[in-house]
Design brief:
The complex is a heterodimer. By secondary structure, chain A is an alpha/beta fold. Chain A is built from 16 helices and 11 strands. In chain A, β8, α12 and β9 form a beta-alpha-beta unit. Chain A is globular, with a radius of gyration of 21 Å. Classes of the chains: A alpha/beta, B mainly beta. Iron/sulfur cluster (SF4) binds next to α15 of chain A.
Chain lengths: 375, 86
C-alpha cells in the first residue's frame, strides 16, 4: 500500500519547477546539507529536472559518511573484547574502517548487534547483567537526543554494564567550514529539516548575517525540496538573503525544548574529526564528565582525542564539501560500487556516491534523465 | 540520514518523563516509540519518529495533508527496520 501525499503531487511539482525556471536569470549554486535530501533530489529526478537553472551541491549531511574510519576501528576492538556486545544502527555495519568493516569483524567473532534505537541497547544491557553492552552513537543533532536518553535511562536504572561510544557531530560548524573554504562556490543553503526540528532556528541567523547567504530550512518530500529551492532562488534573484523556514510542519522556531534539554544535560561540545574533512572545531559532542561512567571512550580506550583521518584513494573529502560530484572520482562505478565501497559515501544510501550510483546519474549528457517524481 | 517517519499515536504505554512510551501507527504498521521529547502528544496526534524516538508533533491542519508512505517503513527495507544513524 502506498499513498501519494500532498507533498508528492506531480502537478504541484511541475508548477514549482516552472516557477523556479521563471525566477532564475542565472544558474544558482545551492547546497542541500542533509544526505536524506540528496537521496530524494536524485530519487525524484529534481536534480536533473533543474540542472540548467540550479546546480545542487551535495553537502556533508550523511552521518555514516562523516564517521571517521578510526571510530569504526575502536568499535571493532570493543566488539572483540570478551563478554562485550557492541550495538549500533544497521547502516554502520558496512562502513569501511581502516582495515575492515564491522560486518567483517562480526564474521571473525566480534559480537556486533544491530539496534533500531539506542534505547534498545539499554534494554539489552538490563536483560544481560553479566555482559558489557556498548552503543556506538553516530549522527547529527537529530540522533544525539536518543543517545542522551539512553544514557539517562541507564543512569536511572543504575546499570553499570552500559556505555556509549559517542561520535555525534554538529551540523552548523561544518556549514561554516564549507563556507570559509576558499574553494567554496555555493550561494545558498537548504538546511537539514530534522536537525532544525531539534535545534530550532536561532543559531542559523548568525550564518545568514555573517556570510550574507540565504538559508532555507527544508524538508524531505519532493514538494518540500522544490519549495526550498524556489524560496532560495527567489532570495538570490532579489539579492535579499534571509533565514526562512519552509518546513514549519516539523520545525518550530525554538526547536524541541525537551530534546535540547537532553542534549545539554548529557553532552559537551568538542572538536571532532569528520571523515574526509578533518578536525572541525566544535564539530562534535562528547559525554560530560558527570556521565564518564557511561563513556565507552574512558572505559575501553582511555582519554578521548580527535583522531587524524587517514588518506586513501577515496575523494570523499571533496564530495562531502561539495567540491566535486561523485562521477569525478576515478574510482566511482569502477573499483568503488555499493557492493564494494571504497569510501563511506558509497555505503549509505544517503551518501552522495551511492545515491548517484543508484539513480544512474553520471556526467554523460546522453544518459537517461530520471522522470520528475517517479519514486 | 536524518530520516523521520510520520505516524499517528494510538495508545500510551508509559508516561514516566524519562521512560515515556507510546504505540505509533505508521500507516498500518504499529511500533512502540519513546516519547521523552514529545511528552504532550495525545492519542490521534501525528508525530515524526527518528531512531525510535518521537522528535516533533505535527499540527492537526498539517497532519491532514500527510499520509504515511509505507515504503518509508518497509520491514523489507533493512536499513530502516534496523535503524539508521542520521
Ligand atoms: S566513488 Fe567511492 S572512492 Fe570515490 S569518492 Fe565516492 S566513496 Fe570515495
Amino acid at each position: 500500500m502506498k499513498y501519494l501525499t500532498e507533498y508528492r503531487n506531480p502537478q504541484t511539482a511541475q508548477a514549482l519547477v516552472a516557477e523556479i525556471r521563471k525566477l532564475a536569470t542565472q544558474r544558482w549554486r545551492i547546497m542541500e546539507v542533509c544526505g536524506g535530501q540528496t537521496h530524494n533530489l536524485l530519487k525524484y529526478g529534481i536534480e536533473s529536472e533543474l540542472t540548467d537553472v540550479v546546480e545542487l551541491i551535495h553537502g556533508p549531511g550523511c552521518p555514516v559518511c562523516v564517521t571517521p574510519a578510526e571510530i569504526i576501528d575502536i568499535a571493532q576492538q570493543i566488539s572483540l573484547q570478551p563478554m562485550t556486545i557492541l550495538t549500533t544502527f544497521g547502516d554502520m555495519l558496512r562502513v569501511p574502517g581502516t582495515a575492515q568493516s564491522l560486518n567483517q569483524t562480526r564474521a571473525s567473532g566480534g559480537d556486533v548487534r544491530i539496534v533500531y534505537s539506542p534505547v534498545d541497547a539499554v534494554e539489552l544491557a538490563r536483560l544481560n547483567p553479566d555482559l558489557d553492552v556498548v552503543f556506538l552513537g553516530v549522527g547529527f543533532e537529530t540522533t544525539a537526543p536518543s543517545t542522551a536518553l539512553a544514557v539517562l535511562q541507564a543512569d536511572q536504572l543504575r546499570l553499570d554494564n552500559f556505555s556509549v561510544l559517542v561520535s555525534h557531530v554538529r551540523v552548523l560548524p561544518a556549514m561554516r567550514i564549507i563556507l570559509e573554504s576558499s574553494k567554496s562556490r555555493l550561494q545558498g543553503f537548504l538546511a537539514a529539516g530534522h536537525v532544525c526540528t531539534i535545534t530550532g532556528l536561532e543559531e542559523y541567523q548568525d550564518l545568514v548575517d555573517t556570510y550574507e547567504i540565504p538559508v532555507v530550512i527544508t524538508g524531505f518530500e519532493p514538494i518540500d525540496l522544490l519549495q526550498g529551492i524556489q524560496s532560495c532562488v527567489q532570495m538570490l534573484e532579489h539579492g535579499k538573503p534571509r533565514l526562512l523556514n519552509c518546513y514549519p510542519r516539523s520545525v518550530k522556531r525554538g526547536g524541541n525544548v525537551n530534546a535540547m534539554k537532553l542534549i545539554d544535560e548529557v553532552y559537551q561540545i568538542v572538536d571532532q574529526s569528520w571523515r574526509g574533512i578533518g578536525i572541525i572545531p566544535a564539530g562534535g559532542l562528547s559525554l560530560k564528565p558527570d556521565y564518564r561512567k557511561y563513556d565507552a571512550w574512558s572505559r575501553f580506550v582511555g582519554s578521548r582525542s580527535p583522531v587524524n583521518p587517514i588518506e586513501t584513494v577515496c575523494r570523499s573529502a571533496e564530495v562531502l564539501q561539495g567540491l566535486i560530484k561523485p562521477p569525478e572520482c576515478s574510482a566511482y562505478g569502477k573499483s568503488c560500487k555499493p557492493a564494494h565501497p571504497l569510501g563511506a559515501p558509497m555505503v549509505s544510501s544517503e551518501g552522495a556516491c551511492a545515491a548517484y550510483y543508484r539513480y544512474r546519474i553520471n556526467n554523460d549528457p546522453q544518459s537517461e534523465k530520471a522522470p520528475l517524481i517517479d519514486g | 540520514m536524518c530520516l523521520g517517519i510520520p505516524g499517528r499515536v494510538t495508545r500510551w504505554l508509559d508516561q514516566d518523563p524519562l521512560f515515556a512510551k507510546a504505540e505509533v501507527d505508521f500507516g498500518g504498521l504499529k511500533k512502540v516509540c519513546h516519547f521523552a521529547c514529545v511528552p504532550d502528544a495525545e492519542i490521534g496526534d501525528f508525530v515524526i519518529v527518528h531512531a525510535g524516538i518521537a522528535i516533533t508533533q505535527i499540527s492537526a491542519e498539517q497532519a491532514a495533508l500527510i499520509e504515511t508512505d509505507l515504503s518509508d517503513f518497509d520491514p523489507a527495507n533493512k536499513s530502516q527496520e534496523e535503524g539508521t544513524s542520521g
